[in-house]
Amino acid sequence: MLWTKTALFSMSAVFSSLHPTLQGIIAGRLGWDDLRPVQEAACQAAADGRDLLVVAGTAGGKTEAALIPVIDTVLKGGLPGVACLCLSPLKALINDQEERMLEICTPAGLSVAKWHGDVGKGERSWSGGDPPHILLTTPESLEVILLDRSLRPDLAHLRFVVVDEVHAFAADLRGVQIRCLLDRLDRLAGRPLQRIGLSATVGNPGEILAWLSGPGREAGLVASPVRPGKKQFSFTLAMGKEEQAVAVAGLVAGKRALVFVRSRSEAEGLATALKGKVDRLSVHHSSLSAAVRREAEDSLSVPSSCVICTSTLELGIDIGGLDLVVQVGPPASVSSFLQRLGRTGRRGGAARMAFVLGSDLDLLLAAGAIEAAARREVEPLRPPSLPYTVFVQQLFLALIGAGRLPRRPLLSSLLSSPVLAGIAPDDAGAIVDHLLATNYLAADGPFLMPGPAAERDFSRSHWSALLSVFSTGAAFRALTPEGEEVGDLDARFVAGGVGTVCTLGGRRWRIIALDPGHRIATVVGEGGGSRASDRRPFWSGSGAPMSPVIARSVQGILARGRSSLPLANREQAAVRGIATEIGAGIPAEGFLVTECSEGIFVLSCHGGRFNRVLASLLAQALGDGPKVRASDLCLLVEGVTGPDPAGEVYGALCVIRARSAASIALALPLPDPADWKFGPLLPLPLFARMVVADIHDCDTLAAVLAAAPVHTGEETISGASSPDFP
Fold first, then answer.
1. Is the pLDDT of residue 115 over 50?
2. What is the pTM of this model?
């Protein structure tokens, strides 16, 4: 059901139905003489006990839309224990939300607490049987609370669970973990808890609401109408790193600005290049200590301050009077673009984003993202269908919490969660048998318990390795001799040894000692400016591939030969130049096969993940000799030696298009199970099945291939090169 402002009651009736204390806080503390439509609709829908998904733009009042009905219920019911649990994807977001919630809850006599890895151990508990009314935490920290026999009973009185920025969870394994947690909380409370999801950008809200709520439950979608606002974009082409730094420095001068980059390493590199060019400069990413990140967040309260960041400052944090967002390179998804754009323009002014781009191709990709967003095309979220690795995690957590459990009831309980419904009982049994055979589980008659291999691999630090579904990689904590934490360094990076000078948090540090046993790198500050011998740190993991939504938008631009945006003449000429370089007859959809000086160029605007899989299939179809390289928008085939190279590639694509999903699955190489946490614990056939379903998504791949026609260029591009192929 979709709830809107005209759904049930007039504004005055909704407001007057709230607890008098809450009415006074809204009017006196917040200074509101009215509820926003999304808050009014949420109150109406929540009154019926429905699960909700609240979708509203950035700074659209989503937090209050969830918080007002929660506080109203607690004030009217005098509920004991933790009444509301708020789950968030980022610790920085929790820190920000705590301050906003305290503003409303403290005058109402309600307590708020946060619990995550950056909170001191002494503050992560409650004493004297006095738990907070509202608890803000992450999925991983919630696992800790549920394992604690002294704290777990205080969650038995829960009434609400709020999942903030639900789009950051739903499409990956962390989302599966959250759904398992929601079902476990229902069982702990002995009743269905009311679930409220919050998001600004969801391409398929109805499906995500069904995922959040589950079968057989009443659910409603609360959607705030999108209000068109002023948006200002600028584009600067800067080819080299130094030139990009100069461009960024000019853009942020005298402004309060966020600068988004693609990776932690790029953030550190840009910070080094900006030294001396920007007055108040900070860095914010996931490998920096809590203190360093907090200092960067606080710096934005000062005029003329700049923070270089990754996606860690993309979500939800209310930065206030931000003047400008700078995007270095094109965004990888429309969702990410909208989140970042929403960091600015929050006080009624225009949202302003300045792009600093390294090539004409980057300009084309940025234009594709903006055009897709203008058409309200946002990436749909597809939850994993065969999350075997999360099943393994939840299996061990259940056993750690209980010590030992009978096999049949344990598996039945785990598989009762709708998010694990795709796992057949026989598959679950095969996983348990494999864990028994490899000593990760032990059996005592019908009972299961952790085995010696699990004790060896997971038991350190109170089984903390089981709390997360993702591997964080082997990292060394960078500590000063005084014990001050600076951040984390990748183990492969510190292999450079003692004496290495690097940047972390925008400062130069020298590694003076390494303790591999405790994974500690002792560092001291290194004065002076950057030198050629300094090493830029790197970390495991790669940036997100370009989304299919942006790629399809780019193909539309190429087919038209121009962008529909009011670009300057030089920028439109750059777009036309790429289209001209590809050649005539660019289709609005499907594949284009044409010749270029390097080989055969295949326009395939389906995004990075799709194109990598297609490149593997095409290389197999062409046989030994030809090499296929993939990017987000195209493939380049080199070394086809027959009389008609383009025709050969065209024919191979036609053959691939006719293949079934099962046939495609058999042809794709199997990745290393060690790349997935708990992957090595799975029987290999089930790991392969998980990869086919949720990594390669062969069903969708086969459907897209079958529906996409293959076109050939009307003319050969003699002497031209493929456009900016990486």
1. yes
2. 0.89
Q: Using H for helix, E for strand and C for coil, what is the string for 374-437?
A: HCCCCCCCCCCCCCHHHHHHHHHHHHHHHCCEEHHHHHHHHHCCHHHCCCCHHHHHHHHHHHHH
3-state secondary structure of 57: coil
Host H or E run for residue 196: strand 194-199
CA 254 to the chain's CA centroid: 31
**C-alpha span between 346 and 431 (Å, rounded):** 50
**Tell me, what's the pLDDT at 270?**
95
Torsions phi, psi for 598 (to 5 deg):
-85, -15
Contact 575, 563 (CB under 8 A): yes
Residues 229 and 344: their CA atoms lie apart, in Å, by 12
Beta-bridge partner residues of 455: none
Q: At what angle do helices 62-77 and 91-105 cross, to 10 degrees?
A: 50
C-alpha distances in angstroms, 669 versus 179, 541, 616, 627, 674?
30, 20, 8, 16, 15
Encode burial over 622-647: b for 16+ CB neighbours within 10 A, e otherwise: beeebebbbbbbbbbbeebeeeebbe
Mean pLDDT of the 53-78 span = 85
Residues 6+ apart with CB under 8 A from 604: 591, 610, 611, 614, 633, 634, 635
Task: Report angle CA 396, 398, 404 to the nearest 5 degrees.
Answer: 90
pLDDT tens for 40-65 read 888 888 888 899 999 987 666 788 88
What count of other Cβ atoms lies within 10 Å of the Cβ of residue 553?
26
Q: Which amino acid is at 593?
A: V
Q: Across the chain, which distance is largest between two alpha carbons, in Å?
A: 83
Q: How far apart are CA 53 and CA 663, in angstroms?
A: 38
What H or E segment, with its residue span, contains residue 609? Answer: helix 608-622
End-to-end CA distance of the chain: 47
Q: Shortest CA distance to 490 belongs to which of 645, 264, 235?
A: 264
> Residue written as tokens 């972390």?
504
Residue among 2, 115, 134 nearest 68 (CA): 134
Q: What is the pLDDT of residues 649-697, one digit of tens each?
A: 999 999 999 999 999 999 998 999 998 999 999 999 999 999 999 999 9
Provide the token pair at 257: 């600005």
Distance between CA 349 and CA 62 in Å, rounded?
A: 20
How far is 614 from 696, CA to CA, in rounded Å? 10
Q: What is the mean pLDDT of residues 351-375?
A: 95
Which H/E stretch holds residue 652?
helix 645-657
Residues paired with 595 in a beta bridge: 600
Residue with tokens 């009973």: 153
Query: Read out DSSP for 518-531?
Result: TTEEEEEE--SS--
CA-wise closest residue to 678 among 669, 687, 670:
687
Find which of 285-299, 363-377, 539-553 is predicted with most confidence, using mean pLDDT: 363-377
As a residue count, the chain comes to: 726
Q: Return the residue matching tokens 């809850």.
A: 105
The β-bridge partners of 476 are: 489
CA 631, distance to chain mean position in Å, is 21
Q: What is the mean pLDDT of residues 612-641?
A: 94
Among 191, 74, 80, which Cα is nearest to 131's?
80
Q: Which residue has 């503050």 as its token pair?
A: 123
